[in-house]
């Protein structure tokens, strides 16, 4: 038995040589990455030489300085500037990309305005590093002209376009929403118009006012389903519930009767209350 096992485990000289070659190859493969790194050491950047070159660049170009941002060097105009009037070429000199410049100019073309330096951070594409690099030089000029204030419930589309930030498209949307709503109770409701976000509203809020006496009341005891359906605050099921409750229980005497309708919550009731007439 031992003899058979010995014969089974024994190796010939040729097999021993082959195993030795295999071991050597494995060692070479494992050692290769370390040998490569040792032979190809990364050269370090000489930071002192870099900043000396940057200083020479500053001297050769008065009015500009080197700004290191995320490993890149940009030319940055040191003089004060107003983002509401700065030309495209000047934006690019500040290190702002062509795409970002296009967004800023498009925003201004539509009536947009920057009222404080922080407003620039809200522009899509402007990064924190962009803003930090140029923030010390932002100088927004105060508007000296008198501010035109528009009454939302009576203004036509031409009048609305006189408001900074409102173009023909926004004016059309505001009037369409106003007609469905029956008028604005407060100017914050204009934010419910499609496309008018907080930034846009903040830009135009000082130019708007509302006379709530001019809203159109809804005769809740006589209005039809189709006309009540136009009210933006009510969905199809809620309108149907109001009409069906009236048919079953008779005319509404007050808001208390509407509170009996389960699918209309208190939040909706507060929104529609100024528009309802119980005559």
TrEMBL record:
* Keywords recorded for this protein, A-Z: Membrane, Transmembrane, Transmembrane helix
Q: Name one GO biological process term.
A: protein secretion by the type II secretion system
Q: Where are the transmembrane segments?
A: 16-36
Q: What is this protein called?
A: Helix-hairpin-helix domain-containing protein
Task: Cite the InterPro entries for this sequence.
Answer: Endo/Exo/Phosphatase_dom_1 (IPR051675), RuvA_2-like (IPR010994)
Q: Which residues form a coiled coil?
A: none
Q: What cellular component GO annotations does this protein have?
A: type II protein secretion system complex
Family annotation (PANTHER family): ENDONUCLEASE/EXONUCLEASE/PHOSPHATASE FAMILY DOMAIN-CONTAINING PROTEIN 1, ENDONUCLEASE_EXONUCLEASE_PHOSPHATASE FAMILY DOMAIN-CONTAINING PROTEIN 1
Q: Which Pfam families match?
A: HHH_3
